[in-house]
Design goal:
Layout (H helix, E strand, L loop, with lengths): L3 H7 L3 H12 L5 H13 L2 H29 L1 H24 L5 H13 L4 H12 L5 H30 L2 H20 L2 H4 L18 H30 L5 H22 L6 H18 L6 H29 L5 H26 L5 H20 L1 H9 L5 H4 L1
């Protein structure tokens, strides 16, 4: 299982970036939950709490491409330090509102939205740093696989930290903890020699659409939307499955089993060289994952369901890794961070869509939610297969923008 990871972490600068990149992203797994709990406690309304969480998610989808473009044009240091400190300050303001006498619901929702907009683009920055550091090396896949594992860890450790803080204090302290983690992680990644070594791209004649002018980049965006949408649909469906059985706590166990499979699959995928191109890997993995989601609909036994989730998890993180590796192959080098930022934004949108659609389907039976996830993933597989030509061409040579190519 160790394989390439030993060589990866032995590279100068990698332990620093990997460690503080993880610290800076822990709030990603905390803030949506914290805003729900904080707003519900402050206002007594879960409707307002849900609005706060939704505004935070929408804010992240809007802000991520913007800040990622800023990284390509201004450099990682300025954007990471600026957004990290600004978001930390807003989180401290939100904590102050919670501990004050006038707990304004409108102000809390507004702060949640602004915190989403100012979410530091660490996901995109870390992948662009790995892309440059390991250009032409097999270790780039290892780095991207590590990133998929980080995503799982963030959404395992983050909620655990929130629960631990809430057990001894109020949501305000959880916001303070998130502010500290954001500031420390972003600033320490920003001051690393690797971040300093990435110069801002030459401005030249920039089009306002940036990487969205390229067919290969555009083709990957719906794949990200559908892949992550299917994952969130599964999580919502597992909550419904547990509720229908009368054992609500079972959902946490099943989601944890899926995460364990995801971590194991991601570690395996990055530990050795994988056959085929990244695009070919993506098509195969999406097809396998879609089939795995579909199998969940044919069982009501929680033990069998857990086993199938573990197997699906083994494919899950490799699919995410292949998706970002494919984007690294086709995106213009001078717009690589923004390309990752757009893919992250589409995954946020897919997350919201998957949750909404699954919520509408699983009030009485869980099977439609599993089939929804399977359909989304298989549709992503078809999109990926349809774009094989443009992706292969873009990977072999720089792609002309759409308006020039036409």
């Amino acid at each position: 299982m160790i394989g390439h990871y030993r060589t990866f972490f032995a590279r100068p600068g990698v332990p620093w970036l990997a460690s503080f990149g993880l610290v800076g992203r822990l709030p990603n797994g905390m803030l949506s939950l914290v805003f729900v709990l904080a707003t519900a406690e402050s206002t007594g309304s879960y409707a307002i709490a849900g609005a706060a969480a939704a505004c935070y998610t929408v804010g992240t989808a809007l802000g991520n491409p913007l800040w990622s473009r800023g990284v390509d044009r201004l450099g990682a240091r300025a954007v990471l330090a600026g957004t990290g400190i600004a978001q930390s300050a807003l989180l401290l303001v939100a904590a102050a509102v919670l501990t004050g006498e006038d707990r304004s619901a409108v102000l809390l929702v507004l702060l949640a939205a602004l915190c989403g907009v100012l979410l530091p683009p660490l996901n995109a920055v870390m992948r662009s740093l790995w892309s440059r550091m390991f250009s032409g090396s097999e270790l780039k896949t290892t780095a991207f696989a590590y990133e998929s594992v980080v995503t799982d860890l963030v959404f395992i450790v983050g909620p655990f930290l929130v629960a631990a803080v809430m057990a001894v204090a109020d949501p305000g302290l959880a916001l303070v903890a998130a502010a500290v983690a954001t500031a420390v992680g972003c600033v320490l990644v920003a001051v690393s020699p690797q971040a300093k070594a990435v110069p801002p791209a030459e401005q030249g004649d920039r089009h306002w659409l940036g990487p969205l002018r390229f067919r290969a980049v555009l083709g990957l965006l719906p794949v990200g939307f559908l892949l992550i949408g299917s994952i969130v649909a599964i999580e919502v469906t597992l909550v419904s499955f547990a509720d229908i059985r009368g054992t609500p706590s079972l959902s946490g166990v099943l989601i944890a089993v899926l995460s364990v499979g995801g971590v194991a699959g991601g570690l395996y995928w990055g530990a050795r060289r994988q056959p085929g191109t990244h695009v070919q890997q993506l098509v195969v993995l999406l097809g396998a994952l879609g089939a795995g989601w579909g199998l969940l609909a044919v069982t009501r036994n929680p033990w069998v369901l857990g086993g199938l989730l573990l197997l699906a998890g083994l494919v899950l993180n490799p699919a995410i890794t292949a998706q970002f590796s494919a984007m690294d192959d086709v995106a213009p080098p001078e717009m690589i961070t923004e390309s990752f930022g757009w893919l992250n934004a589409m995954t946020s949108a897919g997350s919201a869509a998957g949750a909404t659609l699954a919520g509408l389907l699983v009030s009485e039976r869980a099977e439609p939610g599993f089939l929804l996830a399977a359909g989304m993933c298989l549709l992503g597989c078809l999109v990926a297969a349809a774009f094989q030509g443009p992706w292969r061409s873009a990977g072999a040579a720089p792609e002309e923008p759409v308006e020039q190519a036409s």
